[in-house]
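Side project, low priority. Logging it here so it doesn't get lost.
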Amino acid sequence: MTLSRSPSPRPGGGWSSPALNAAADAGSPGTFSPNEISWGSVKAISDETDGYPSFASRNTGFFSRQRLKISTRLSTLWRGSSHEYSEKDDHGPKWRHTDCFRRNMCSLPGISTRRGRFRLLVRLLILWIVYLLFLSSIVPIYRRSPVGGGQKFVIILGSNVEGGVMELKGAREWAIERNSIWNKKNYALKWGYQLELANLLAKKRYSHEWRESWEKGDIIREAMLKYPHAEWFWWLDLNTWIMEYDTSLQQHIFNNLESKVYRDITAYNPMNITHPLPEFWLDGLGRSTEGDGNPDSLNMLLSQDCAGFNLGSFFIRRSLWADRLLDAWWDPVMYEQMHMEWAHKEQDAFEYIYQSQPWVRSGVGFLPQRSINAFPPGACGDQENPNVHYQQNARDFVVNMAGCMFGRDCWSEIYYYRELSKWLSRPLWIRFKESVIDAYDGLRGKIKKT
C-alpha cells in the first residue's frame, strides 16, 4: 500500500520544516533545528489562520433591537382619547384605536368574561337539576333532624270518633276523616313533624264505661312514650283544618313565644275566674298574675272561645308539670263523679283543675283564639266576632268547625275551607297568570265573576 505521506521518524510526530520554525524566522534563514517544531503546534497555528471570525452585531441588546417598537407603543400611552388624530406617514392609519397595547390584549377580558358566564350557566343548571331531583327529599330530612327542629313536635289527631258504634258512619263522615288526615299529614311532612293518629273507637277498654270518652290524657301519655325526643305535643280534633301550609309552628308561635302568649286570664275571662287566688298561704308565684314571667316555664298553651277553655286545639309540653297534670286529669274522681254534669268531659275537668289548683296556673299560657283555633261563622253565636271567627285577610292559621254536628253541615264547612286554603296557597305563577287575565278582561270591559 502506497502512503501519501511517509511516516515521521520523530517520536512526537510531524516533520521538521524551516518555514514553520519561529526561531528560524527570527534568526538566520539558512539555519534551523528539527527538534524545535512539532505537529501539534503546526495544527494549532493552522486552525487559527484558517477559521472564520464570529459575527458580531452592533444591536446585540433587547432594548437596542426593540427601540423602535417601544417608542411607538409609548407614544400611545399618553393620548387622552381612544381616537386621536395623527399623521398617516408617522403612525400608519389616520385614526388609531389606542385603548390597549395590542388587540389580543384587549380581547382577553372578553374571553374570560364569556368563559365565566358559561361556567355560571353550567352551575345554575346543575343546581336546578339538584333542586328538581333532591329538594323534595333533602329538605324534609333536614327539618326532621335535631338541627331542623321538626323532631321536637308531634301532632296528635283524634280520628275515627266512635268508629260507627253509636251511629252509622256515612259517606260524609268518611270524607271528613279522609280529608282531615290528608291535611295534617301533608303539613307534618312538609315541616318534618311527627303525626300520631289516635283511634277514638268506642269499645270497652277501661274499668268504667265513662272513661273511654275521656281519652285525651291517656293518648297524650302514650304519645310521650312513643316519641321520646319530642318536646311539644299538639292535639287537634278531627273537625279542624290547617289553612297555612307555608307557616311552621316555630315561625307562628315558638320562635317568639313570650310575645305571643298572655298568662293573665283577666285579659279575656268569659268564665269570670278569680285570678290570682286570694288564699293567704300562697307564695309569691301563686299570687302572681303573670307567673314567673319566664317563657321556658310555660307547659301548656290553649285558647278561649266565647264560653271558656277550648281543647279542640292545644299544646302540652313534656315536663314534670305535665306529668302531674295528667295524673290529676286522668284521676277516677273526675270521670266517675262528674261525668253527668261535665258535658265537655276533659275540657270541663281542666277548667275545674285550673280554678282550684294554684300550681297549674303558673304553667298555663293563653293564645288568641284565631291563632290556633279560629271558628267558622255560626259557631259561638250567629253574629260575626272578629276575635273569634276566621278572618281571611289576616290569614288565620287553623279553623276549628266546633259544634258543626249540632245544626250545621260539617262536610260542607270542611270542603269550603279546604278549597279556600288551596286558593290562598296557589303558586306565584298562577297568581301572575290570573292578574294578566284580569287585566286583559278589564281592557275588554268584561265583568269579573265572583
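Brief comment: Residues 145-372 form a domain with the Spore Coat Polysaccharide Biosynthesis Protein SpsA; Chain A fold (CATH 3.90.550.10).
Revisit when time allows.
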